[in-house]
Please model this.
Amino acid sequence: MDIRKLEVFCKVVEYKSFTKASQWAMISQPTVSEHIRNLEEQLGQKLFDRLGRHVEATPVGQLFYSYALKIIRLQQASLEAIEEFSGHLKGRIIIGASTIPGTYILPCSLAAFLATYSEVKVDINIANSKSIAQKVIEGTYDIGIIGAAWNDKALDWHALYMDELLIIVPANSPLAQKKNVAVAEILQHPFIHREQGSGTRKVVAKILENKGIKEKNVFEIATIGSTAAVKEAVKAGLGISILSKKAVAEEIKNGTLVGLTLDNEPMERPFYLIQRKNRELTPIAAAFTTFLIKKLHKQSSRLKE
Model:
């Protein structure tokens, strides 16, 4: 079975679109359709239902997708193993990352890694923690880097980096004159949440709960699905929020946002590197994981295992 056709098939499943799959593969849409038709003829099964502009994998298509991913990854691993045996690392690593590590931590680490392994290619997919964990379990991503942990027997978790959180207020807020706020003051101001499934939201809820405040008791004014949008909402005076210090460092420096501590105590959360339990990493993913752990542990002196 042709590996290229399997790759195209997987992209149609993931994008739910023949057009987007053709753009990814840099081939025409009729060629994508022909690839899928050939696979359906080989299998004697219908792989997709056409729903207007979108397509959905049939139950058989979903089953075949899981095996197609394994075939593709096995081929990649075999080629990487041969390159490693020859003294090279060449291939691609696919990473899922939540907003903070994907935007503010990984780029610098990748630049250092790729300076040594110039023939390695990297895909970074930014999404919320729950989505990334599911993709790692499915095998779509080699590894994930997320900001929350929970009990999932399918995953191995490794504390990677200690992130500091701050209460974020607009520069013209009465709170901006303070350096610290008491927990009771949180209840007096409209609060902007991240979306459900976000690692930041999960950690913030835990921090407030430890202070005696349940998430449902906070005066929620909005739920917003990206850190950048939350920052803009706070700047506009919509409410206050709690975000990573790394995400707001530039705004604090230029004075458009002010960062405060809570009860004069640091708010911290570890970022975790996750991988599928009992699944051996490809040589590239293993090399990058080792590099990343060593580099970020040095930067995070307060890391708690």
